[in-house]
C-alpha cells in the first residue's frame, strides 16, 4: 500500500498577537516643518500687534491739547464812580491772579498775551498784557498781580451806565488770549488759549463777586 503524501500547511509569515504589538517600542519621527502659510500668518499677526501698540502710545504721548487758562481771583482798588445822568463815569484798577495749566508731554512757550475787560455789551473798558513765559510739561503756572486799569472814558456810548451806577452793580467780562507753541518728541504745534470770565463789580462793597470762567 502506497503511503499517502502528507503536506503540512503552515503560514508563510508569523504574525504576532495584538497585545504583543502594543508592547513593541515606539518609533519617534521628526515633526514636519510648519507650512509657509502659517509662518506668514504669524508674521502678519505680530505686525498688527506692534502697529496697534504704536497707535496707542501715539495717542497718549503725541496728542497735543490746548493749555487751559483761568482767572482764579480778582480784586479792586482805587474805585471811583459818579456823575449825573448825562455824564456818568467810573474808574477802577482790577488786580487778577491767573493760572495756566499745561497737560501735554512737552513744554508750552507762549508769547505776550492780552487781557481785555468789557463792560456789559457796551465795549472794552480796559486792556493789559500777560507777559510770555514757559510752562513745563504737566505743570501749572500761576501769574499773580495782573493789573488792568478800567474806565468808562473808553466807551463811545454810556447809555444805561447811569442806571447801573444807581443800582450799585457793573456787569464785566474779562477775555484773555495767549498764543504759543508746544514741542513733543520733535513735533511742534502752535496753540491759542482763550479764556472768558464773567463777574460783577459791587460798587457799594468795592469788590468782585460771581466770578465765573469758561
TrEMBL record:
Its main location: membrane. It comes from the Eukaryota. The chain crosses the membrane at residues 39-62. Keywords: Membrane, Transmembrane, Transmembrane helix. It is found in: Membrane. This is Late embryogenesis abundant protein At1g64065-like.
Amino acid at each position: 500500500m502506497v503511503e499517502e503524501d502528507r503536506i503540512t500547511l503552515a503560514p508563510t509569515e508569523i504574525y504576532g498577537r495584538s497585545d504583543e504589538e502594543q508592547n513593541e517600542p515606539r518609533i519617534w519621527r521628526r515633526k514636519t516643518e510648519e507650512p509657509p502659510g502659517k509662518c506668514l500668518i504669524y508674521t502678519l499677526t505680530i505686525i498688527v500687534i506692534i502697529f496697534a501698540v504704536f497707535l496707542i502710545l501715539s495717542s497718549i504721548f503725541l496728542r497735543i491739547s490746548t493749555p487751559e487758562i483761568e482767572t482764579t481771583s480778582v480784586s479792586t482798588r482805587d474805585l471811583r464812580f459818579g456823575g449825573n445822568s448825562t455824564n456818568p463815569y467810573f474808574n477802577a484798577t482790577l488786580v487778577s491772579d491767573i493760572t495756566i495749566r499745561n497737560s501735554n508731554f512737552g513744554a508750552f512757550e507762549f508769547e505776550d498775551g492780552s487781557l481785555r475787560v468789557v463792560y456789559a455789551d457796551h465795549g472794552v473798558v480796559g486792556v493789559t498784557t500777560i507777559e510770555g513765559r514757559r510752562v513745563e510739561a504737566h505743570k501749572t503756572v500761576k501769574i499773580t498781580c495782573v493789573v488792568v486799569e478800567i474806565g468808562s472814558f473808553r466807551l463811545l456810548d454810556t447809555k444805561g451806565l447811569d442806571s447801573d451806577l444807581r443800582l450799585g452793580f457793573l456787569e464785566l467780562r474779562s477775555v484773555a488770549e495767549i498764543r504759543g507753541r508746544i514741542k513733543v518728541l520733535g513735533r511742534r504745534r502752535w496753540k491759542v488759549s482763550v479764556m472768558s470770565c464773567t463777574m460783577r463789580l459791587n460798587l457799594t462793597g468795592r469788590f468782585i463777586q460771581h466770578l465765573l470762567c469758561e
